[in-house]
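Chapter review: from sequence to fold.
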Amino acid sequence: MGRGITVKLPTHKVITALETKLTKVKEDYANQEVNEVKYQEAFAQWQKEITDYAIKNIKDAVNFRVNYRSWNSTLNIDYDINVTEDKLPYVS
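The token string follows.
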């Protein structure tokens, strides 16, 4: 087997980094419900923006797929739009 790697780090820096990360994890856990609400709101806004983008750019669509379900009277239409990521709506 190969030799092990030894890395020398100042102990106080490692402890400080771990304490900082633990504080952040505890903070995130305490604010989990608030953060989830913010995420859901942002996600809903993104869904609206991406839907608007897809409808606006349907002329560039390829690979149309249509499916009609007679048992519940549902028409499903899927299509693809070839686009680079920088043109898509972005939620931060």
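Two observations follow directly from the output. Residues 32 and 76 are 36 Å apart (CA to CA). The longest strand covers residues 61-69.
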